[in-house]
Amino acid sequence: AQSVAQPEDQVNVAEGNPLTVKCTYSVSGNPYLFWYVQYPNRGLQFLLKYITGDNLVKGSYGFEAEFNKSQTSFHLKKPSALVSDSALYFCAVRDPKRGYQKVTFGIGTKLQVIP
Amino acid sequence: DVKVTQSSRYLVKRTGEKVFLECVQDMDHENMFWYRQDPGLGLRLIYFSYDVKMKEKGDIPEGYSVSREKKERFSLILESASTNQTSMYLCASSFPIRGFGETQYFGPGTRLLVL
Fold first, then answer.
1. Which residues from chain A sit within 8 angstroms of residue B100, using beta carbons?
2. DSSP label of A84
3. CA angle, B40 then A73 then A55, to 5°
4. Within an 8 Å CB–CB cutoff, is residue B10 touching chain A?
5. Contacting residues of A for B31, CB less than 8 Å apart
6. What does the pLDDT look like over A80-113, one tens digit per residue?
């Protein structure tokens, strides 16, 4: 079975400060890992993904995430938060060994950037 | 840009009604998905289709069925709507590039209220 945990329901950060949104996963073998963002009343938008290779992945809007196999984590980071980053963030995992292309999503973390 | 459209943004139905949610994608993607999104539960997969007329049950298929008669269109059907099916429904599509991770592209969502 595959699963993903987002331990924080909400993260508050001041504009201009660095932000981190946490994600841990459980999957047998090497995972595919994803981050998506959802703005109010919108569908999810892809931010970045880790498949293989460099553990630091860079994505859209200045976001990056670090894959840490020993800690089974894939935390989302940004050096300087913007008010416009306020949204709901979802981490997701897929086991590539499964023929069925099912992705498991976390419950989401609400990011609030305070001006 | 990939575009995934959903037939309605908001829908109000009565208990027992048959409800059709339509999803269309314009990128010739093989895979299409239906999720429901509920606060505190994240996204849960209802059904998945990997080709025309092909479907797989997700985590919560009970009370739902799907239809994929054309590659670009994936319909979710609530045979007899119930109040516990009040939710946000999200459609997504992806192109199965083996070994590169399959980014999912989401529609804007349909917020369904069952009275």
1. 51
2. G
3. 135
4. no
5. 101
6. 999 999 999 999 998 877 765 678 999 999 999 9
